[in-house]
Amino acid sequence: MRAKALPFLIFCLSIIQCISHAAGSNGASEQPETVRFETAGELRHSFPKGFVFGTATSAYQVEGMADKDGRGPSIWDEFVKIPGIVANNATGEVAVDQYHRYKVDGTGKVNWNGVAYYNRLIDYMIEKGITPYANLYHYDLPLALEKKYKGLLSYQVV
């Protein structure tokens, strides 16, 4: 991914997340059909009842904190260290720092600070009327699993 494209991608993901939240049920009495966005002719009622709109991010894209008490390094943290692989040698070390800003891993020990972070994040999403869904893989993998098992090629990872 080009470094210049990263801010645009983050912006697009943020817009999609805002739209999906606004168009979905948020506990308010307002009916979803009253929310209008430019959708190239597709309206929410065009989709089957119960259809869930969603967005996704990976830890590398948004969290930061790989070197502290957060998520631990991923395959992307290692990949972007290759000189010249990304324009201006940009990385996602800080990303949008979701780990600190959301309100304004394998065979080792459980990372209780990381678990607590996700508990806080999920609680906050529910508080705001957002239904969280778990995504088992989104282009990101803990580096420890890649090194030990050669990533997704191993049945021990899947």
From TrEMBL:
- Its source organism is Salix purpurea (Purple osier willow)
Return the similarity comment: Belongs to the glycosyl hydrolase 1 family.
- Could you say which residues form the signal peptide? 1-24
The record's annotation in SUPFAM superfamilies points to: (Trans)glycosidases
GO function term, MF aspect, one: beta-glucosidase activity
Q: Which GO terms describe its biological process?
A: carbohydrate metabolic process
> What Pfam families does UniProt report for this protein, alphabetically?
Glyco_hydro_1
Name the UniProt record assigns to this protein = GLYCOSYL HYDROLASE
Q: Which UniProt keywords apply?
A: Hydrolase, Signal
Which superkingdom heads the taxonomic lineage of this protein's source?
Eukaryota
Q: Keyword DNA-binding: yes or no? A: no
